[in-house]
Amino acid sequence: MPKVPPGVGPRFPQVVVLFGATGDLARRKLLPGLYHLATAGFIPQCRVIGVSLDDIEAEAFRTLARGALNEFFARKLNDADWQAFAANLDYVPLSAGAGALRAAVDRAEQSLGEECRRLHYLSVPPSAALPAVHLLGEAGLVERSRIVMEKPFGTDLASAVALNHELHEVFAEEQIFRIDHFLGKEPAQNILAFRFANGLFEPIWNRMFIDHVQIDVPETLGLGKRSGFYEQTGAYRDMVVTHLFQILAFMAMEPPTSLEPAPIGEEKNKVFRSMLPVDPAHVVRGQYVGYRDEEGVDPESETETFIALKCYIDNWRWAGVPFFLRTGKKLAEGQRIISIAFREPPKSMFPAGSGVGAQGPDHLTFDLADASKMSLSFYGKRPGPGMRLDKLSLQFAMHDTGLLGEVLEAYERLILDAMRGDRTLFTTAEGIERLWQVSTHLLESPPPVRLYQPGSWGPKSIHQLIAPHAWRLPFERAWRAPNRLGG
Ligand code: BG6
Hints:
This protein is α/β, with parallel strands linked by helices. 34% of the residues lie in helices and 19% in strands. The protein contains twelve helices and 15 strands. The protein has helices at 24-39, 58-72, 79-87, 97-112, 126-138, 157-170, 186-196, 227-252, 261-274, 410-420, 429-444, 462-466, and strands at residues 14-19, 46-52, 89-93, 117-122, 145-149, 176-178, 210-218, 283-288, 306-311, 323-328, 337-342, 363-367, 373-381, 389-397, 449-452. A nine-stranded mixed β-sheet has the order 14-13-12-11-7-10-9-8-15. It has a six-stranded parallel β-sheet with strand order 3-2-1-4-5-6, sandwiched between helices.
């Protein structure tokens, strides 16, 4: 078993109660993530109890978990590790009730034989969250426990406030971990390192020097088996009010007094408090052609599978700087970028036809793909006589450093943090409620959905939304392939 440095894992053995254990997220991320954490030695003392609506036995759950690993575990599966992990899996159907769940947790805790902690993971749609919370209360599983709540946290301001209120009747706020897996991505945390550990860019990280910002997360994926969830959710609630706004906060926040949960949470919340309400006139909602024919989708559905919008943070640092956000399903490319466009200098000294400014402003671009990439584009002189300018770039790829090694996947990192009680990368109730508040007008008066072709970049009106600027994607120049170390 690989050695995990001391202090990285949780102090106590863990019993994980996984609600939604047979669902899409559990299969893609949570079961593979728990397997990796357990077998790599991060949580050597761990039992997992699956819970879901499916009336199956523990053995069938193990088979499902094995299938999920075969399909989604990115590393090499090892049979001995699997046998050990499978022996620690149990299952309780929801229909068996609180007594059966309690008995399964008791069994797991006895087998661990020491003082344990419980991690309840609610990988369920918003409507199923509170019933699960009440079941845990009824089963007497609140003590010594933490609860991880999946997004969307509520569906609007009123439901988020009500959810927090009811949640607090069972769990104390310190026990609640509202997860946003984008914050568990290494490149997202690298935004903080990049901004605050370097003197280079922070002095120009404001409205005086930055013209506009794009946070662009197109996906090629469709809905898979998630149409039921997605029909009630849509792209805005699924991606923007959660992931994209969280990334925006990392990008826009003031330096926190320390990298502790409370100072970081406070600075992020200040960004959200300064956000102007999202104006429906600055929003393009789209739906891909064919969505309404999918199983589980209303043939007259108005749910958006695409959204692009412009928003503003009305504070001293950012007043007047537009932030453009875009995400959607079945688009031309899968990308996750943040692109910062700097203000342009006067160009009058360059001769006509020099090409200065012809390829847009200088950009700093962060790629939030699994391994960080960054680029800084600028104009430079084309070698030769005269003064002809080309857009050039400096590029960095974490791949090239050889430091990637045993990177934890976003969910793995966050599950481990929750087990250790570290909420630095989790969202706060206040922040989430404020984000619903700035979304109220849009949710009440959404613009009509416009159709787009699968494989495109969304409805045509996205260009009007961003004019006189232009979307960075698709990139005019591809990223350079990372160097092969030693190659
Ligand atoms: C999830 C959304 O939270 O994030 C999905 O529900 C989306 O719709 C996914 O596809 C994207 O996450 P990642 O980590 O694959 O970029």
